[in-house]
Amino acid sequence: MSAAKLAAAGLIDVLASDYLPAALLPAAVQRARAGTVALPAAVGLHDRGPLTPGRRADLVLADLSAPHPIVHWVARAHVR
Questions:
Q1: How far is CA 21 from CA 8, 18, 29, 31, 71, in A?
Q2: How far is CA 24 from CA 31, 51, 55, in A?
Q3: pTM of the entire structure?
Q4: pLDDT digits 0-9 by tens, 32-72
Q5: Smallest Cα–Cα separation from 31: which of 9, 49, 8?
Q6: H or E element in which residue 59 lies
């Protein structure tokens, strides 16, 4: 069975890689694009999401138009 089918069925808890860690972000973006999970949750950040009071506001500026995401800038916990 493919990982995409498992994700669509809600049967994936984590994404992991033992040989190509760079594949994790594209896999998370693919899950978000498929609508199986919101992007923050796809990368394990369940306390983040919309910019609303009480949520963490970590920001990632990434180009998602290419086949693989290209991260240009990250701000986490007031650190750039």
A1: 22, 7, 14, 16, 15
A2: 11, 24, 24
A3: 0.61
A4: 888 777 777 777 777 766 777 777 777 888 898 888 888 89
A5: 8
A6: strand 59-63
